[in-house]
Amino acid sequence: MRLRKIMICFLSFIFLFSTFTLPPVAKAADKPFLHPLFTDHMVMQRDTVDTLWGWTSSGEKITIEIGGKTFTGVADGSGKWQVKIGPFPKGGPYEMKVTGSKTVTVKDILFGEVWFCAGQSNMAMQLPNAGDGTAEAAKANYPNIRYFTTPYQSSSDPQTVFGYVSYWTQCTPTTVGNLTAVGYYFARKLSQELDVPVGIVCSAVGGSFIESWIGNEAYKAFLATPEAAGFQASSPNGFYNGMVAPVMPFNIKGIIWYQGESNTQFDYLYKSMLTTMISDWRKNYGIGEIPVMIVQLPGYQKVQTLPVEMAPYATIREAQLKTVQGDENNGLIVTADIGEEDIHPKNKVDVGVRAAICALGKYYGKTIEYSGPIFRSLTKEGSKIRISFDHTGSGLAAGTKVGTDPVEFSSGSAVKGFAVAGSDGKFVWADANIDDGTVLVSAASVASPVEVRYSWASNPIGNLYNKDGLPASPFKANVSNSSLPPTPTGRPTATPSGSGYTIKGYISPDFVSIQSATEQQLSGFYVEILGIGLSAMTDNNGAFEIKGIPASSLGYKLTISKNGFLTRELTNVKVTSNINISTVTSPISMWAGDIAVNGIKDNTINMTDVIQIARTFSSVKNDVKYDAGCDLNSDGAINMSDVIIAAKHFNKVSADYPEI
């Protein structure tokens, strides 16, 4: 009877959500004479050639008149036309007349700096929803700041126009409520410092995965790499095709990217996907090595209590750091110090202002320190490690950040957040002292440290800043190469730090035997030993192996996780020899149905998961709405089989797993 009620509930939600469809996409015959990105009150990039485009009859001549100048072009065989205008210096307003089969007049055009803001919900958060946003909105009268929000649209193929109409809007107290908070604070600072109009084009979708923002061909190339083997994407390409492709080749100064929260399940792939996305966008925009500023993930969840906490957020922050270090045209916006236990921290002031500072110093030539301290190298000095940084600015200091107030410095404040480990791989808190522009770290219990980490946790406590008020980026390094270790080129498999023992085992979903399961069903379970930084991923046979584990008669805690499955904890796993904690005939059983929302699972199989399945019901792999996390049996289709699997353990939580 209970299962029947659950099934009725599931089916009701499936019916409800399956009635919703995406906005219709314009067909070729419906394409507009002038692309809908070009509206009254728009901002175009100053001091460069700008491209306008639209559609008309093949061979038709197009004439554009603006600022006393005339520019012409001819529609190609498909009817698409492109006309390049300018360059124009900062200023305006201008009126532009576009003439062909019809005449369109665009009024109140400004030339200034145009930035493209993209990502997920923290970028999409509108000003009134941010901290003090309502009060700020009431005084946000900045007519030189304009914004355009791309309409929501997801598609399996690149689109040329939007699914519905949007407009450029001036920033006033009555209109700013729809403007991204990060974009607002960025534009306000940039406009004030440069005395120029600023245009913000925002394409952001809450809960979106980075693979949704990569173009089709680039994504196929990524999937062909060895490290992507077995990776199942959630809605690949959809938002690139629907919300980025339509604005190309609109000329912009640069990009601000704020995303990563949803990719915690496959954090080890994030750097490759991020560099793939950046290269893809630069290629398709066709305007060279365009600047890309990456907002490093803020703190999230419980505040750090252990010297090192193996959290996916830390891995993604490292990927973001390395992406910037590997490309001089990229910039890093560190925000680990302004997070909250909520995944949507309200302080968007510092995010936007720090982004503007980075842009001013790195891309506009202002003689300011534009970055927080970035790890450069380390040297071992007996029982201590000396760490050197780039971007020390006016000097290093321990700081305190409260809300949106400026960082406060005190000469007596201790530097927090550093941890060291010896050859046994056991991290302990380190004493850290600022010494002549470097940081000297040591720990009484570690006679010969070989590894160091800073702020390595989901919500870290690190308080190292430069005196310009910008925080240091989290990092990890070891003595053997004195710099950041390379990102793994495959699934994360633990390697020993010195001698140690090995844990082996097998894991399988409970709805299928390991002998009859597919490779997709058995692979991808992430096994982590908490507190010591060792982990592994199951292979196509459901097997995992973790090496180099220090002996412990007290016992370790292991967690097993995978998107779509209820996380399982194994406690008091004593390691005094090599052990097999499960076998191929008696694997560790995992319950399916706990689906990540915005990259986070709630460790309960409940109505939140029902809604996710309902939203994606009847989709198949490569469909726009397909989500691999909802495809519980990994057969490439979300259907009644997945509903039945989730219903089996409905209302179960992680604590309900039986002890092993």
Q: What report would you give on this structure?
A:
This protein is an alpha+beta fold. Among the domains are: 43-295, Rossmann fold (3-Layer(aba) Sandwich), CATH 3.40.50; 376-455, no CATH class; 501-590, Immunoglobulin-like, CATH 2.60.40.4130. Helices cover 19% and strands 28% of the residues. The chain contains 12 helices and 34 strands. Strands 1, 3, 4, 6, 7, 8, 9, 10, 11, 12 and 13 form an 11-stranded mixed sheet that branches. The chain has a 4-stranded antiparallel sheet with strand order 14-15-21-20, with no helix packed on it. Helix 8 links the parallel strand 12 (292-295) and strand 13. Helix 1 packs across helix 11 (607-616), helix 1 packs across helix 12 and helix 4 crosses helix 9. The model is unreliable at 13-28 and 484-498 (pLDDT under 50).
